[in-house]
Amino acid sequence: FTLAVAIAALVAGAEFLDEAERGDVLLLADDWNARIEEWCVASGSALGAAHGVEAHYVRVAPARVISDPAALRDVVPLKNRDRDPGLPAAEQVSTDVLQLVRFGLRRADDPFVRGTVGLVDAVLRAETPSGPAWRRYGGDGYGEHPDGRPYDGTGRGRPWPLLAGERGHYALVAAEDPAPHLRTMMRASGRLGLIPEQVWDGDPLPLAGLHPGRPSGSAMPLVWAHAEFVKLATSIRAGRPVDRPEAVWLRYAGRRPHPARAHWAPWMPVATIRRGQSLRVLSDVPTAVRWRVVGRDDAGEATTAPAALGLHAADLPTGALRPDDAILVEFARAGSGERRIEVTEPESPPA
Fold first, then answer.
1. Which residues constitute the domain of residue 227?
2. Which of 236, 225, 108, 247 is nearest to 170 (CA)?
């Protein structure tokens, strides 16, 4: 979700920049967009295998995945549980993948999207008397305890009507019927038509006022959910997600880009670039960048120049490097250290 919003913001915001900066920001957005699967897709997880899904988007990727894909095996803590289950990133899934489709970064029929949506339905979907609803992510502890006691820092996450609205937007893009999801949101509302944050999905507990598919003891109204209801109703009439930035759709139309330039920065230390890509090194201060190709005499130094977003940039001549080549880069200042960046073949989109 966060990565989708960040990429969409770069593309939409680029329209407010001058021509030179606009091009640089769009190339950065393209680079991030092309790396979504590299950073956020887990293959061969136990969770996926249990449900026949070979690869899926994860809920949260550790920051170091930018330079090491093995980081998806790192544990991502769940702070709202009485006892953290210690699940690696690759074993956690959430509904956030839908935002990639809603904002026009991926198609609804993208194989990774389809696989993740199937996994989400297997582990997060709840059938309630109000209609199907979804929990936020596996292992969520934010919600009432099974005996109806209120959330006290731990508990069990319950289905959110809001997420039925998000699924309705996905259904719209996927050429499915979104109306049932709108009806779920309506039926899950309280007596005054207020949409709750969560609905109860356990056995009826009348003394606690908890009934399946009806508001739990969570926040009500959840204004965010009311906004989602309005947007879904409007989107159904418009035939498309009305909050999809038009600039993003025009640039990507749901397809993964093949950017001509990769970007490296101390806060974004990517470990690979694709064959044929140039490499832009970013810094928050003016500096010089030293580089050398491993096993060759090719080496040089480039001075950064002011670039978009208040950064400084130096472009390195990597376009002629071959797969399995590697380039070492470092800033010409004490203690920066060399970083290795390997050249790989461009990935083919999944079938």
1. 2-252
2. 108
Rounded to an integer, what distance in angstroms lies between the CA atom of residue 272 and that of residue 65? 12
**Taking a C-beta distance cutoff of 8 angstroms, is the pair 198, 163 a contact?**
no
Q: What is the model's pLDDT at position 334?
A: 59
CATH number (domain holding residue 321): 2.60.40
CA dihedral of residues 283, 343, 270, 329 (deg, nearest 10): -40
Q: What is the pTM of this model?
A: 0.93
Burial letters for 119-133: b for 16+ Cβ neighbours within 10 Å, e otherwise?
A: bbeebbbbebebbbb
204 and 100 co-located in one domain: yes
What is the rounded CA–CA span in Å between residue 287 and residue 280?
A: 13
Task: Examine the fold and report which residue of 213, 235, 252 is the final residue of a domain before the chain moves on.
Answer: 252
In a domain, 350, yes or no: no
pLDDT tens per residue across span 131-177: 999 999 999 999 999 999 999 999 999 999 999 999 999 999 999 99
Does residue 9 share a domain with residue 117? yes
Q: State whether 203 and 291 are in the same domain.
A: no
Instruction: Name the stretches of the chain with pLDDT < 50.
Output: 351
First to last CA, the chain: 24
For position 349, what pLDDT does the model report? 55
Structural domain includes residue 76: yes
Hey, how many other C-beta atoms are within 10 angstroms of the C-beta on 348?
6
Q: 240 and 183 in one domain?
A: yes
